[in-house]
Design goal:
about 475 residues, alpha+beta, Thiol Ester Dehydrase, Chain A, 3 domains, eleven-stranded antiparallel β-sheet, about 15% helix, globular, binds zinc ion
C-alpha cells in the first residue's frame, strides 16, 4: 500500500468506537487492599472503613490510579468458568495496529498515559469502558524510528452508565532500525568499568574491626561504644580515646541521618562502582544522648544535582561479595557494605490546605529500591499479565534485559508520592505522564516533584513529578489535586 493510501486507511479509523468492555467483577475491598500492599500506599481511605466513613468520601474508595485496571481480562489462556460466547469484536486501536504491523511498523512503545477522574471508584462499582480512536499521526521521524503515533481515549462508566473517568493513551508504532539515534554510540574515550560490586576490593577484617563487619553481615550498623565511659566513636579503635578502656562493646544505630558533606567522584573509575559516584559524610542520629557520629559511605538513588547538605538519608545494605569460603568470618566470607539513600518522606496524617501550598515548592525526594518483587506484585495487583512484567526468561526472549515496571504500577507510585505529601484526603483529579526509560530491578527509582500551580480559591493544585533511574527519566508528568481551601 502506498504511504498516502495507508495514511488514508489509518485515518478512516479516527472517531470509530469499540465494543463496550465490561469488567468481569466489581471493585472489591480485597483487590484494593492487594493494590495498596503492592504500592505500599497506607492511605486509610482505601482500607480502613472507620476512617473512610468519616472522610470526604463517606466510605472506602479505590485509589485513583486504579481506574483502568478493573476491566482487564485477567491471566490469558486460562480456562474460564463462563467463557465468552463469541470472540469480542475488534476495537479500532487493534485494527490500526494490525494494519501498521502489516506495513512493517512492528515496533511499539507507549508514549503517554493520562488518567482523568470524575469520581473515585467504590467497592461494588462494576466498570465498563468504550474505546474511541482519537488520532493517527502522519509518519514522523523519531529517535526510535519512523512511525505513527496512535491515540485512543477510553471512557469509563459504571454499569448504570455513570461517567467516572477517562484514559487517554498514546503509543508509537515504528519501523525498527530507522531511528535518528546513532546505531553505534560514539566511542567513549574511556569505557565505563564493570559495575558489579563483587569487583570492589574486599576489606581487611581484623580483631579491631571484626565486630563491625560481623554487624554488616547481619545488616546491623554497630557503633563501637566504650563499656567504661559510654563514649561512642567511629571507625572502631582498639581502645577508648576518652578513658583508655580496652573494654569496647557496641550500640546499634537505626541508620537514619543527614548529609553533613558530600563529594562526587568522576575519575579515576574503579571496577565495582557506578559513576558519577556520590560519596557522603553522613551524620547519624544521636544514640542515647551521645554526640552524633559521622561516617563516609556511598549515596545511591540520587544524581549529584539532587544532593544537598542536611538532606535526610537512610541506611541500606549492599551485599557486595558472595562468600569465597562459606561461613568464613574474615574477608574470605560474604561482605555487606552500608550505603545510604534519601530517607523515605514521612506521610502526612492530615491534608494540607491549598492556602498553605506555594507554587514552586519542592517535594522531598523519594527513592524506591526497585526489586523484582516490586515489579511482579505491582503487575499482578494492577491485573497486567503481560509476561515482560513477571517472567524474566520471556522478557529476555523479547529482547528486554529484564522484567520492568508496568505503567499502572508507576502511576500508582506517582499517586502515592504526591498524596503522601499532600495528605490522605487530597483528591486526585488527573494523573498525566510521558513515558521514558524502563524501570528495571536493582536500579533505584527516584521521585522528585515541585508544585507547578495553586489556585487557593478552588483548591486546585498541580504538582509536576519526575521518576528517574540511571537510564534517564522513567516517567515525567503531573498530578492534579483538589485540596481543602
Ligand atoms: Zn571510655
Amino acid at each position: 500500500m502506498a504511504a498516502d493510501d495507508l495514511l488514508t486507511t489509518l485515518q478512516s479509523y479516527v472517531g470509530k468506537r469499540g465494543p463496550v468492555q465490561v469488567a468481569r467483577h466489581p471493585v472489591t475491598p480485597t483487590a484494593i487492599a492487594d493494590w495498596c500492599d503492592a504500592i505500599g500506599d497506607i492511605n486509610p481511605v482505601y482500607v480502613d472503613e472507620e476512617v473512610a466513613a468519616k472522610s470526604r468520601h463517606g466510605g472506602l474508595v479505590a485509589p485513583p490510579a486504579t481506574l483502568d485496571i478493573w476491566d482487564r481480562p485477567g491471566l490469558p489462556a486460562q480456562p474460564r468458568f463462563r467463557p465468552p460466547e463469541k470472540p469480542p469484536a475488534e476495537d479500532p486501536r487493534s485494527g490500526v495496529l494490525r494494519l501498521l504491523d502489516e506495513a512493517g511498523y512492528v515496533g511499539v512503545v507507549a508514549v503517554n498515559s493520562e488518567l482523568e477522574l470524575v469520581r473515585y471508584l467504590r467497592p461494588g462499582d462494576l466498570l465498563q469502558n468504550v474505546q474511541v480512536l482519537e488520532d493517527v499521526s502522519p509518519e514522523k521521524q523519531t529517535a526510535l524510528g519512523v512511525g505513527h503515533f496512535v491515540t485512543t481515549r477510553q471512557r469509563y462508566e459504571t454499569s448504570e452508565g455513570e461517567h467516572v473517568g477517562d484514559l487517554l493513551f498514546r503509543i508509537l508504532k515504528f519501523k525498527p532500525n530507522t531511528g535518528t539515534a546513532p546505531a553505534t554510540p560514539a566511542e567513549p574515550s574511556r569505557p565505563a568499568p564493570d559495575a558489579n560490586p563483587a569487583l570492589r576490593p574486599r576489606p581487611g577484617i581484623n580483631r579491631d574491626n571484626q565486630t563491625l563487619y560481623d554487624g554488616y553481615r547481619a545488616h546491623e550498623l554497630r557503633v563501637p561504644t566504650c563499656k567504661g565511659c559510654g563514649r561512642q566513636f567511629f571507625p572502631p579503635l582498639p581502645r577508648c580515646s576518652a578513658c583508655g578502656s580496652f573494654d569496647i562493646g557496641y550500640t546499634v544505630s537505626a541508620g537514619r541521618g543527614t548529609v553533613y558533606s558530600h563529594t562526587v567522584v568522576h575519575y579515576p573509575q574503579a571496577p565495582g562502582f557506578r559513576y558519577p559516584l556520590v560519596v557522603a559524610l553522613v551524620e547519624l542520629e544521636p544514640i542515647d544522648g551521645q554526640p552524633p557520629l559521622r561516617m563516609v559511605a556511598d549515596l545511591v538513588g540520587v544524581t549529584p544535582a539532587q544532593v544537598h547538605v542536611g538532606m535526610p538519608v537512610q541506611l541500606e545494605w549492599l551485599d557486595s561479595h558472595p562468600a569465597l569460603v562459606e561461613g568464613a568470618t574474615d574477608s574470605r566470607g560474604p561482605i555487606s557494605i552500608p550505603q545510604f539513600r534519601p530517607a523515605t518522606p514521612a506521610r502526612r496524617a492530615d491534608t494540607v490546605p491549598a492556602g498553605d501550598v506555594e507554587a514552586g515548592a519542592a517535594l522531598p525526594l523519594w527513592t524506591l529500591p526497585v526489586s523484582p518483587t516490586h515489579i511482579v506484585a505491582g503487575a499482578v495487583a494492577t491485573r497486567d499479565f503481560q509476561d515482560v512484567h513477571h517472567d524474566r526468561d520471556l522478557a529476555h526472549r523479547k529482547g528486554s534485559k529484564d522484567i520492568f515496571l508496568n505503567i499502572n504500577t508507576s502511576l500508582g507510585y506517582m499517586q502515592r508520592y504526591v498524596t503522601d505529601w499532600a495528605g490522605p484526603e487530597a483528591l486526585v483529579t488527573a494523573l498525566r505522564v510521558r513515558l521514558g526509560a524502563p524501570a528495571y530491578p536493582y536500579l533505584p527509582l527516584t521521585f522528585s516533584g515541585a508544585v507547578q500551580s495553586v489556585d487557593a480559591e478552588s483548591g486546585r493544585v498541580v504538582v509536576g513529578v519526575q521518576a528517574s533511574n540511571e537510564l534517564g527519566p522513567h516517567i515525567t508528568g503531573t498530578v492534579e489535586l483538589e485540596l481543602p481551601q
